Amino acid sequence: MNVPLPDVPEVRVVGLPQLTSGFDLVHRLDLDMHLKVHGALEPMPGERLAELAEAVSLSGRGGAGFPFGRKLRAVAKSSIRRGVRPVVVVNGSEGEPACRKDTVLLNRAPHLVLDGALLAAEALGARTLVVAVTRDSTEASVRQAFGERGLSDRRGQTLRARIVRTPERMVSGESSAVIRAANGGPSLPPGRKVRASDSGVSNAPTLLSNTETFAQLAVAARLGPQRYGNTGLSTEPGTVLLTVSGSVARPTVLEVPSGVPLRYVLELCGAPPLPQGVASGGYHGKWIDGMTAHGAVVSRKSMDAAGGALGAGALLPIGPETCPLGETLRVAHWLAAETAGQCGPCKLGLPAAAAGLSDVLGGGGRTSLEALRQVTQSVRGRGACAHPDGSVRFITSALSTFTDDLASHVLNGGCGRPTQGVLPLPAPGYQEEGVPSGEKLAVDWTLCEGHALCAGLVPELIRMGPDGYPVLADASVPVHLQGQAQRAVRRCPALALRLEEAPAPRGPAPSNRQALPRGGG
Predict the structure, then answer these.
(1) What's the pLDDT at 337?
(2) Phi then psi dihedrals of residue 171, to 5 deg
(3) Which is it for the CA torsion 273, 274, 278, 280, positive or negative?
(4) pLDDT tens figures, 330-368
């Protein structure tokens, strides 16, 4: 199946709209319509803005959930200490295939996002605003919004505003990758941990937050803490934007008050009455089983208690007709190909984890399962960015959630259900620098003699199996590994290894068994 999400899915609302006000009137709120719907917004001193953020418990909506008020104070303190004007960055770099809420906001309500960003810039005394985006439609909408407000990057402007385009990649939305891109570098994490509040864009203290976070700030500034707190839970007031896809009637972005039952959200989007599981928080989140999801509500605390994660607001239920571990494997291969290639846990560990899960589903038994667990344990906590941890969290949560399916694969060689491909991934032919190249490694098993030279040259994609023959990752060769893959092909003593065009998916696989053919010389 694998139907990628559209840039701007259908938008629905439960209760009274706040972020999505005016969406029933026009497709995109230009500046005039934005002011008619939301009204003007008065500037606010820095201390008062921080107090507002703390009063409404505003936290980052990009996944980490860091308190916005603390971040604002940290940037202000660093700016005063260093005597340097800070920079404000809107992180609209939404490279996860299961997320569209930020893209919806920047395409349909760009001025609400800019309201929050400009409010923070004025409070901090910033003279630079950067908006990072991933898609053509989003860039066009933000550029139009800049024009409507008279914002530009020209010298002499009181506030210089510019757009930074990042690739549509999982790692490109990481805060340090966005800052690196804004500084003219590649959209990859730098491999070292530096607080943006101390040194970010142009080495200045930088307030970087997610698109929805700035939009929520603008809503809270207009309503005030009391009216804002009248919606949702007292501990997590306000509304939440969710992207719901997977086994649903149609992908939907919803604005809901916090505290709404999760089962109601899923039913509203046409999910099965009792899904066998829900991937919560996206592909760096966690799986939760259907019964647990039935009793959870939309809040960080409730999702955490259920063993899931609110994360970036992505919810992906799956029905009983597909193998949940097979669905996880598809995503695991994609996550492995999304590696920045800058540290061992990402470069080596994630392909090994995907290959290990493939072995388990292919009938590898208890030995393969134990090997997979060892790989995920070795990756956890050792990456240069959050990508390795998030990826193995997604994989290991599937093992602990779908225990019956896991037992069927380990003990019986399969669960008997096909993998339908209901979790969205980029469309065939999708390419960006550092992600799948469109080529795939293949082995002629009538020639392979198990020399193991290829596994030493490109261990990210090839490892040696317990029978002494290579096991290839079921993923397209990333661009940054093409050179190594070509060397492995040239140096194969038996001329058994080759690069060929990766076939486009033709539909769901007939089964979950992925046993690798063996050959010998």
Answers:
(1) 85
(2) -80, -15
(3) positive
(4) 999 999 888 777 777 787 888 889 989 998 998 888 888
Walk across the sheet containing 87-92 and list its strands. 160-165, 128-133, 87-92, 206-210
| Gyration radius of the chain's alpha carbons | 24
Token pair listed for 296: 């959870």
Which of 14, 473, 129 lies closest to 484 in space, CA to CA?
Answer: 473
pLDDT surpasses 90 at 430: no
Pick the CATH number of 19-227 from 2.30.42.10, 3.40.50.11540, 3.30.160.270, 3.40.50.1370: 3.40.50.11540
Residues in contact with 377: Cβ distance below 8 Å, sequence separation at least 6, in sequence order: none
Question: Over the stretch 403-420, which tens digit does the pLDDT of each residue have?
Answer: 999 999 998 888 889 999
Beta-bridged to residue 316, according to DSSP, are 279
Spatial distance between the Cα atoms of 500 and 489, rounded to a whole number of angstroms = 11
* Angstrom distance (rounded) from CA 103 to CA 94: 7
- Asked if residue 471 lies in contact with residue 462, where contact means CB atoms within 8 angstroms, the answer is yes
Cβ 297 vs Cβ 259: under 8 Å: yes
| CA angle, residues 64, 67, 70, in degrees to nearest 5 | 130
Measure the CA–CA gap between 6 and 251, rounded to whole angstroms.
8
What does the domain layout of the chain look like in residue ranges?
19-227, 234-319, 325-501
Structural element, H or E, at residue 493: none
Q: Are the beta carbons of 56 and 220 closer than 8 angstroms?
A: yes
CA nearest to 302, candidates 250, 260, 273: 260
Close Cβ partners of 129 (under 8 Å, ≥ 6 residues apart): 87, 88, 89, 90, 117, 118, 121, 151, 159, 160, 161, 162
Q: How far apart are CA 67 and CA 89, in angstroms?
A: 16
Distance CA 219, CA 228 (A): 8
Classified as helix, coil or strand, 435 is coil
Domain range 325-501, its CATH number among 3.30.70.20, 2.40.10.270, 3.40.50.1820, 3.40.50.10490: 3.30.70.20
Between CA 402 and CA 81 the distance in angstroms is 52
Across the chain, how many H-helices and E-strands are there? 19, 14
- Amino acid identity, residue 381? G
Q: Rounded distance, CA 57 to CA 235, Å?
A: 7
Strands 87-92 and 128-133: parallel
Both tokens assigned to 245: 């896809």
